[in-house]
Amino acid sequence: MGSFDAIVSLCKQRGFVFQSSEIYGGIGGFWDYGPLGVELKNNIKRSWWRRVVQMRDDVVGLDAAIIMNPQTWVASGHVEEFTDPLVDCKQCKKRFRADAIVNNTCPDCGAVGQFTDVRKFNLMFKTYVGPVEESAALTYLRPETAQGIFVNFQNVLIAMRKKLPFGIAQIGKAFRNEITPGDFIFRDREFEQMEIEYFVKPGTDEQWHHHWVEERLRWYIEDLGLRKERIRARALPKEDLAHYSKATFEIEYDFPGKGWAEIEGIANRTDYDLKRHSQYSGKDLTYFDEETKEHYIPYVIEPSCGVDRIFLAVLLDAYHEEEVRGEKRVVLKLKPQLAPIKVAVFPLLRNRPELVRKAKEIANALRKDFTVWYDDTAAIGRLYRRQDEIGTPYCITVDVQSLTDNAVTIRDRDTMLQERVPIERVAAVLKEKLAEC
Ligand code: GAP
């Protein structure tokens, strides 16, 4: 288990996450994913998509636009309701979420009782469509991907001839002008969501709600490999529910140094959104149930998670420090499917051109099946440690004997055991090993 500090440092040093526009001093709540980060992030998204779209016949995908007709956000309730309570400290002029103030004391300058009255602050980023900055052109960057799904409910229903229950899944960016972004990539102003709107017959919603809580917990444990004891589902008390929710379970991860915090919300949104869009658009968004011959607006169960928070949980969970022969070894025990690099290839001796040539040949041959890293910039022990630190499950070493026996060693990240494998069998052996994990 890693600490926040260890992970923040690893992310920067090894190219997982950088501060956005760092050379200009950065910008609060925005982050860039580096060469390894983008691989890990894509692997998390692929794993989710595989489980909730590819492996199910009742969920289809969608990729809707980030900017939508602004009426969407009036109908959804976000213009009215998507606010945080905000106060200013009169002493230091800093701004805080009112619920973050303890004992009436400013968290920044320590002044007591120096706050302005609480105001409502809308978290949506505003923008203008077209060349004129006037109110008629005002719209918003979406604060959740969900609304792109609701407004496409009828399109998908008709085009895909779906029957209830069925879901629409989407991965995409969302934007919130958070008052206090922080905890590294935990609370951002730009982040990525993976959301499903699962449409069901009213009356079956509670049963489907429980189904999705169980199913989503299984994904975290079975597919992402998060430790069971660090993940839980918690029913939210009524006073904490969002304006659209009848009941919500949060899936929480026990972040070191921070404690239990939300990585996913699974809400019963009832018929709230489709009803509101129907009212505001004047379009019929009912479903015709052929069995009962009734028209009704479906209820919706919404499993909604944040890629960035899951990315952070995966790294913290995978981080290990061990002692090997008197030296510290840092190793990311990522599920091999999530590892940014699947296999690294090294020549044992970098000053032997024939070993370098052979190692490069092997690396190039493996590229069509795996993400591969070739390296000859340090001694072999150092090269192994570097790969351990970024979670590469297998390392291949080409040694002098390889030139005569046409075999190489494959080293396992977790056990550090090595086995000798004929070069012609390397790709097949790696495929078998990765399929087993
Ligand atoms: N459509 C429902 C919805 O957006 P939410 O609980 O506000 O619900 C869902 O957000 C998930 O999105 C959260 O569980 C979290 O993982 C992620 N998320 C929300 N705000 C975030 C932020 N400011 N930074 C990073 N992730 C965030």
Major beta sheet summary: 7 strands, mixed
User: What CATH architecture label of the largest domain applies?
Assistant: 2-Layer Sandwich
Instruction: Determine the number of helices (DSSP H or I, runs of at least 4 residues).
Output: 13
Q: Which radius of gyration do the C-alpha atoms yield? A: 25 Å
| Ligand kinds | glycyl-adenosine-5'-phosphate
Question: What is the CATH topology classification name of the largest domain?
Answer: BirA Bifunctional Protein, domain 2
- Counting helices, strands and paired strands, the structural category is alpha+beta
**Strand element count:** 23
CATH class division of the largest domain: Alpha Beta
Residue-averaged pLDDT: 96
Helix content: 25-40%
End-to-end distance: 20 Å
Q: What is the count of structural domains?
A: 2
Instruction: Please identify which CATH superfamily of the largest domain we are dealing with.
Output: Bira Bifunctional Protein, Domain 2
Strand content: 25-35%
* Uncertain stretches: none
Read across the widest sheet, the strand sequence of neighbours is 3-9-10-16-13-12-11
Q: So what's the overall shape?
A: globular
